[in-house]
Amino acid sequence: MDLAIGIDIGGTKTKIGLVNNEGHCLEDTFFRTKEYPNLEDYLDKIKSTVDEIKSKYPEGVNILGCGIGAPNASSRNGTIVNASNLNWKGTVPILEKLNERMPMPMKIMNDASAAAMGEMLFGNAKGMKDFIIITLGTGFGAGIVANGKLVDGYDGFAGELGHVDMTIGDGRLTGQNVRGGLEAYVSATGLKRTILFMMCKYMDESRFRDIAYNDLHGEEISKAAEEGDPIALKAFDFTADILGMALANFTAFTQPEAFFLMGGLVNSGKWIFDPLHKYFEDYLLEFYKGKVKLLQSGIPGKTTAICGAAALIWEDHSV
Predict the structure, then answer these.
(1) pTM of structure
(2) I need a surface site. Which of 43, 67, 136, 296 has the fewest CB within 10 A?
(3) Alpha helix positions (H), the chain
(4) What pLDDT digit, counting tens, does each position of 128-140 carry?
């Protein structure tokens, strides 16, 4: 049986799985990235984890290669460069070092760009030539497909839309120290910061007045919105407004058929999607209105990032 290894390197978790040619993740697991601050130990952990999940197939499998999605990854150079949410700073030759431990075809790409490849091969973007993936997790990522090709960029760093300066309000800093950057507002972390902002701005009673910032989680904000908490509702509306403006701006330079939203913030469902549809249409130029869809990923949420990474290998073996 032919399978590809998919590895998603995140600031919180590193997720690893075995993916078949239909985009089904047959085995998956994870470990906590920050528990391995030393790069060599971290890479050893990846190797042992891959060996562990492969051992579940005693009859053996044919591994075609390993695809990796990671923040600030250069597909051209096989490196991760100054990722704000990872322990290793500077230029990390991660592909070279991991290939020493696991000799096989290997590719790395920005995690959101890898997700775009996964969506095109396995998800709801099958048959689409122009679309943009937006990942709304700890940060804000984007993978851009235009004319059926991934926009990779000269050095493999295209699509860093989360650090576009939106010059919004108080000018929050992103993880790359961009003041007013998009991800500081539109991400799971950004939503938490907006809750605090709304509590300072308004006097409404809210459950969040008794919760410390580090104890605040996205699921709780969604639940509060369900219960009509005014601070939660204001926070979602504020977030959707900014995202709607950003997506309307992004439409102007590639005119995608659709935006696919994925990541933790998308789990907020209608609380983010309903106001987003309204604001997005309001901000679009007249000749784009009604033409661009806002959709969710067609890959199961738990394995979206793993399948996206594995797609970097499967794209070379697709019929």
Answers:
(1) 0.88
(2) 296
(3) 39-54, 94-101, 111-122, 188-201, 218-226, 230-254, 270-283, 304-314
(4) 999 999 988 878 8
